[in-house]
């Protein structure tokens, strides 16, 4: 509604003086012209028009403006933004409860401020809009200020907190904004500093009133922060269950952590918990039972703790029978082969198949049922093997062919199987140079010495720094004891003619004495090739490790080799599909590669298809990854995913063509950007309020906030200015008048 209208001039003393002189001068000239014409009426009218034109020009020189003042038809708005990020789940607000002092979460503490009735005192003169920070940018009706119903606000803000952008977006979207109330813990970890938004809002005369939630220092608490229970385990094999304890107590203490299993098993562990820090420990649990179990880990409550309900965690686990398929390919039945075959055959979790070529003999293989007569020629037959041991065999009419070498390469590269090179005295593996397997070998061999090196003095393995921390070489529980075991193992009297390890390979053990220009000779070397793993064993004397200790170290080593190589391949498998990913220990914000091996309904590798992986994060955010076919013969589909949160993620793999679905979980390691348990940052909120000319208010002072908002000055009336001096119609009118003046002069005979 327009309150009043008036005309104003933006004149200067010079423009006023010039205008008066111009009008007076024109009047004098016009009077003189009228007298000379004999005082004709027509000339008098013409001269009056001249004076009007000059007067109009003089008025325009003083910049006239037509101003209309309007009072707003709607009430101004106050936006109340509340923080709905994950950090608001921190339990550090102490209140009076039924049993005395108790701690509640920051989100629970701010609930009274989120009730529209709490702001009803402002309804007479202000519109109040309540909105979570995460949904400020979502499409919504500006009149209601409500977020889009199709967008889950919790999903938007689960991983990060941005305080600057929501403030600026609110100022742009909400009309007649008088001020903003920000209810938050002040913890921001995304975008630019929020004080920059406060500076920009100050220029718009929009103050920010801040309400801090949470304690600026941690409350005394001991929390069982995480328990990494794997999705599945093997019957009869130890399952490692790491856990993390987070303490904010100012002292170290010893506590007993208890693990209970639904089958009745119970384990305890005495742990020294570090003051004001995190303590990492683990249980090792083994059972022969199979099926679905539930594991619960708990620790007792300390006397000083203010939060007693975060000392226990539980999760399910599936224990199943392990059955790994291993293929051993050898030429002569040397001692290393015989003892290896026995070790694998006696392992209850391994199904071994042996292919013994017996050069010079008509019959291939042996007399036991675990011998096969031919190398698997079909992809679907070879793809069933998790690990292949390649002994002293090579490219020959009676042994391997180039096509079989290509199949072995595809098995490792595409199917995540493992390959163990075990060269021997015959040097037959040198014939594999130039085949597809040459690329897989992790070492460079000396072609001038195909038979290797022998010595009457036994050599010994020496673990490298990498080998001391590897699961492959762990023959004892502690690191120092493990090193001593390797030093005391019976030695070997033959070793392969190794020159050096290839780039990208990991050397786990070297010869304790022999070296060349590249350093100590590598004898135990691993590498990753495609999706699978490769191991090079540079001696044939591991069978001697049974001396005096029977199968203690020999069986343990080869059992660890098989399981280490088959672990990734057997992460998740079902009928017609298996899923594996790398790295096998995913890290937050680092790319993870999914690989799915899919068989069609006829049991052959699926050539083309639609394979989707859905990943649900701990916060409930769902991501979908479409896997694309890799090659045209192995039935492998791959895709990439970058997890943004640590913790346990639910994974589902679906193939539309076969209708097969796999459900599993993966645990992402690392630290989240958005964390629960960090102290609040009221200093951030105080700075924002100071810069924007608002005020930082206590959480329980709703009445004070209302008084401050009610005292805000009403918005000034809006003004509409029409600049007449530059309006096109004024110039058009002036041109028309000048035209009339010129024609009139000609009509009266002055031209």
Structure overview:
- By secondary structure, the protein is α+β, with helices and mostly antiparallel strands.
- It folds into five domains: 2-71 and 720-747, no CATH class; 77-218 and 677-710, Rossmann fold; 222-316, Sandwich (Immunoglobulin-like), CATH 2.60.40.10; 324-566, Class I glutamine amidotransferase (GATase) domain (Rossmann fold, 3-Layer(aba) Sandwich); 572-668, Immunoglobulin-like.
- The protein contains 15 helices and 38 strands.
- The strands form nine sheets. It has an eight-stranded mixed sheet with strand order 18-17-19-20-28-27-26-23. Strands 29-30-31-34-33-32-35-36 form an eight-stranded antiparallel sheet, with no helix packed on it. Strands 6-3-7-8-37 form a five-stranded parallel sheet, with helices on both faces.
- β27 and β28 form a beta hairpin.
- α2 (41-61) packs antiparallel against α15 (728-747), α5 runs parallel beside α6 (194-203) and α6 runs parallel beside α13 (682-691).
- It is elongated, with a radius of gyration of 42 Å.
- The two termini are 53 Å apart.
- Residues 138-157 have low confidence and may be disordered.
Write the layout of secondary structure elements.
Layout: E1 2-9, H1 13-36, H2 41-61, E2 64-70, E3 77-82, E4 91-97, E5 100-105, H3 106-109, E6 127-132, H4 153-156, H5 164-173, E7 177-184, H6 194-203, E8 208-212, E9 222-227, E10 232-234, E11 239-247, E12 253-261, E13 266-273, E14 277-285, E15 291-298, E16 312-320, E17 324-330, H7 335-345, E18 350-356, H8 379-382, E19 387-390, H9 402-415, E20 418-421, E21 443-445, E22 453-459, E23 461-463, H10 465-468, H11 479-488, E24 492-495, E25 498-501, E26 506-516, E27 519-529, E28 532-537, H12 552-566, E29 572-574, E30 577-582, E31 592-598, E32 611-616, E33 622-630, E34 636-641, E35 647-655, E36 661-668, H13 682-691, E37 695-697, H14 702-710, E38 718-723, H15 728-747
Parallel strand pairs: 3-6, 3-7, 7-8, 8-37, 10-16, 17-18, 17-19, 19-20, 20-28
Antiparallel strand pairs: 1-2, 2-38, 4-5, 9-11, 11-14, 12-13, 12-15, 15-16, 21-25, 22-24, 23-26, 26-27, 27-28, 29-30, 30-31, 31-34, 32-33, 32-35, 33-34, 35-36
């Amino acid at each position: 509604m327009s309150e009043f209208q008036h005309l104003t001039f933006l004149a200067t003393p010079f423009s006023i003086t010039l205008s008066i002189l111009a009008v007076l001068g024109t009047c004098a000239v016009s009077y003189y012209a009228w007298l000379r014409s004999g005082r004709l009426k027509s000339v008098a009218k013409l001269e009056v028009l001249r004076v009007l034109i000059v007067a109009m020009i003089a008025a325009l020189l003083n910049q006239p403006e037509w101003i209309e003042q309007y009072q707003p038809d709607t009430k101004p708005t106050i936006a109340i933004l509340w923080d709905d990020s994950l950090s608001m789940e921190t339990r550090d607000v102490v209140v009076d409860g039924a049993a005395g002092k108790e701690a509640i979460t920051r989100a629970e503490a701010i609930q009274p401020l989120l009730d529209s009735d709490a702001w009803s005192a402002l309804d007479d003169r202000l519109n109040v809009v309540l909105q979570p920070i995460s949904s400020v940018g979502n499409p919504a009706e500006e009149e209601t200020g409500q977020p889009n119903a199709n967008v889950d606000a919790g999903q938007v803000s689960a991983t990060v907190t941005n305080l600057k952008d929501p403030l600026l977006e609110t100022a742009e979207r909400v009309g007649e904004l008088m001020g903003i109330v920000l209810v938050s813990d002040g913890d921001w970890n995304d975008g630019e500093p929020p004080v920059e938004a406060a500076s920009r809002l100050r220029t718009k005369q929009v103050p920010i009133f801040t309400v801090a939630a949470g304690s600026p220092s941690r409350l005394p608490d001991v929390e069982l922060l995480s328990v990494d229970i794997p999705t599945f385990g093997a019957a009869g094999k130890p399952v490692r269950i790491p856990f993390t304890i987070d303490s904010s107590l100012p002292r170290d203490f010893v506590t007993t952590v208890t693990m209970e299993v639904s089958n009745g098993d119970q384990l305890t562990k005495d742990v020294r918990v570090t003051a004001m820090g995190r303590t990492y420990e683990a249980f090792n649990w083994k059972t022969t039972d199979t099926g679905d179990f539930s594991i619960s880990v708990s620790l007792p409550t300390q006397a000083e703790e203010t939060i007693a309900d975060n000392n226990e965690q539980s999760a399910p686990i599936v224990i199943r029978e392990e059955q790994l398929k291993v293929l051993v390919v050898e030429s002569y039945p040397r001692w290393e082969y015989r003892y290896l075959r026995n070790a694998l055959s006696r392992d209850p979790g391994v199904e071994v198949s042996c292919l013994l070529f017996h050069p010079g003999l008509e019959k291939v293989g042996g007399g036991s049922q675990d011998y096969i007569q031919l190398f698997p020629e079909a992809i679907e037959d070879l793809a069933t093997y998790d690990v292949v041991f390649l002994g002293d065999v090579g490219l020959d009419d009676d042994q391997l062919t180039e096509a079989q070498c290509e199949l072995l390469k595809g098995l490792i590269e595409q199917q995540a199987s493992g390959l163990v090179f075990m060269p021997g005295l015959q040097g037959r593996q040198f014939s594999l140079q130039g085949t597809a397997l040459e690329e897989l070998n992790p070492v460079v061999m000396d072609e001038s010495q195909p038979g290797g090196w022998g010595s009457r003095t036994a050599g010994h393995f020496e673990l490298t720094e990498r080998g001391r921390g590897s699961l492959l070489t762990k023959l004892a529980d502690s690191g120092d004891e493990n090193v001593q075991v390797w030093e005391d193992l019976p030695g070997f009297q033959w070793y392969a003619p190794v020159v050096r390890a290839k780039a990208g390979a990991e050397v786990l053990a070297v010869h304790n004495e022999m070296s060349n220009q590249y350093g100590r000779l590598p004898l135990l070397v691993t590498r990753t090739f495609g999706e699978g793993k490769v191991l090079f064993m540079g001696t044939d004397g591991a069978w001697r490790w049974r001396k005096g200790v029977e199968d203690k170290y020999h069986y343990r080593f080869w059992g660890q080799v098989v399981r280490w190589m088959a672990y990734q391949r057997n992460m998740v498998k079902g009928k017609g599909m298996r899923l594996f990913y790398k790295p096998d220990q995913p890290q937050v914000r680092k790319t993870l590669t999914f690989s799915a091996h899919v068989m069609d309904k006829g049991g052959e590798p699926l050539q083309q298809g639609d394979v989707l992986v859905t990943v649900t994060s701990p916060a409930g955010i769902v991501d979908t990854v479409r896997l694309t076919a890799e090659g045209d013969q192995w039935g492998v589909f791959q895709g990439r995913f970058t997890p943004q949160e640590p913790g346990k993620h639910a994974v589902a793999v679906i193939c539309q063509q076969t209708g097969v679905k796999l459900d599993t979980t993966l645990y992402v390691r690392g630290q989240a950007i958005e964390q629960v348990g960090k102290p609040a940052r009221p200093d951030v909120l105080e700075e924002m309020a100071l810069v924007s000319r608002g005020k930082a208010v206590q959480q329980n002072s709703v009445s004070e906030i209302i008084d401050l908002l009610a005292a805000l000055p009403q918005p000034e009336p809006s003004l509409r200015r029409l600049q007449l001096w530059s309006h096109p119609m004024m110039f058009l009118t002036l041109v028309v008048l000048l035209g009339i003046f010129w024609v009139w002069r000609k009509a009266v005979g002055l031209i």
